[in-house]
Please model this.
Amino acid sequence: QLTYADNTGVGKTNIQILLFPLTTMILLPSVAQLYTMEREDGLLHAMELASMQIDAYWVGMYLFTVVYTFVYSFLYIICGYAVGLNAFTFPPMLLHLLLALVWSHTQAALAMLCSAVFTKARMATIVTVLAVLLTAVSGYVITNALDVWPSWLYVFLPFAYTSACSNLMIYNGGMEFYKALASLFFGSAVI
Model:
């Protein structure tokens, strides 16, 4: 059984448990759309015909996505910390930044997976928006219903991220946080 680290943490029903994962996952649809549109419009094929390095292109896109999503999450964390919300002032800032960095890596991997699976940018956007909304809301419900998340949910990486966020904000990290963080990192490396 998990227990609260002390009374300064946020409660399970706090709206921050829903808003933090939702707002930091919201970039996934736009990044997935960007990757899919490049494939849909034939830009990658045109680059190959022009003898450009496709490997360098993908490394550049990966780095752009990681930096872009990390800066977005970092600004959100800094704003929450500046306002004095318990969800941001209670856990160590380093854990928040580590989670933001791993999630940025995961979003880049998921966007690349979406560009490989979907042929139309519109479909990739619709599916990822629905996945983000359903994951954030159902993650909030699961957090309120259970003390410990079932480990099999970590296979779907946005659930692992939502679990890591809630464990960080409620319990100040802990073993469940590190399990979810490891699932994010290694799961996105497999993708």
